[in-house]
Queue: 3 jobs
Job 1
Amino acid sequence: MEQFIQKAATLVEAFPYIRSFRDKIVVVKYGGSTQPDDGGSDTILADLVFMETVGMRPVVVHGGGREISRRLQEAGLESKWINGLRVTDADSMQVVEDTLFGVVNRRIVEGIRALDGCAYGMSAKEAGVMHVSKHYAMAASDGKQVDIGFVGDVHRVDPEPVRRVCEKETIPVIAPIGLGPDGRSYNVNADTAAGEIARTLQAEKLVFLTDVNGIMSDSANPDSRISTLHVNDVDRLIRDGTAKGGMIPKLQACVRSVRGGVDKTHIIDGRVPHALLLEVFTREGIGTEIVQ
């Protein structure tokens, strides 16, 4: 009996959140490091279906770096990064696009449909969602521009194709491939893409699913998670090295999104079962929220 009472108490706790988020857009960046390799059981997909069923409007922007690296290796192509961005020549771009939209995107859409949810896979390029300009990296040695190929900076986001899918009570699943000024495909950092899409949609929330337990004030101490972080403190964490590597574009996307009108942003451990529901529908949450 006690376990059933606890389940009822959990539903009561969640109810105010369900009511307040009804018809609100929540953009979820689904990182490749938290996706099952075989496309098998995934509580994140169940969470997304639940959110849509109770009236929320989840929008998924996914990565796929691990799968891309594997397929590049199979094709005999080297994976190289500069400033955290993948160097993407023409051959690599073809593999990137085929993997992101043809494999990862399809896997997520099919997983949602297997749970009786409705999902629609979109390439941000083909759907006209994301227009980009060519990105040039800065060399650490001399500060000069470095051409890293078909890598894009988001220039403009058209929210209407995404809104139309949401209005049909369907979950948009977006591959972060941008349309360049030359009509070619460009690889866009998925964290940056999620942030720009959330900002343009004026989403209620932006949630990053990653493989760490939020932002730690001390990386050696698992109990040092920062529960709430104000946007004005983010630059300091980057400068002093508290935030580094792949966490930097996530935090930068959070800051830009919050300052652009997104109410709250979150960085959570997507490996935790039902991480999305725990973060959105409970008082405590499980990660770091970045707020104005």
Job 2
Amino acid sequence: MAGDVRWRCVAAGRVQGVNYRARVADSARRRGLVGSVANRSDGTVLIEVQGPLDLVAEFLDDVRGPRGLSHARSVERVEELPISRDLASFEIERE
């Protein structure tokens, strides 16, 4: 797991009710990343992602901006987390 990171990020913009969580999960899974994505009560989306730094950076670039009905104005890293060996997939947290 050398070179891996695990970050907590927050996406803001038009990111709820527009299939944004599915977009995030699809992007992460295509890159073999693990973690989760969930809506927050303040209208933002919480993303926890783990994997090689270059793939995580590529993933974050991919989930920014407009696509379909969604438009993530910003996706900001808010916390670095310890690497977890227990994560095996990328999940969409249900409300």
Job 3
Amino acid sequence: MLVKVDKIIEGNKVRVAELDIDNYGSVIPLRELELRLPEDDSVIRVLSSTQYAAIFTGSEIDGGADTIILANSVSLDELNEEKKRAIDAMNRK
């Protein structure tokens, strides 16, 4: 899932906004989530050094807090490339 990192809370949780990219290349916030961080600090280091990230959780998120198992930083250039792909896909339809 693509997220915007808002705040790391108490060292063991993070507040994020789940994002989507529509067919016109607009970034749409879907919902606010508070997720648990794993015991090791690799995910914390990634999330504290980036504004956007692709994250993976241990299971589906249905309103309850879940633990992030993997996080990859997403740069603004990468985000803009995804937006361009969404627009190109719409234009091909």
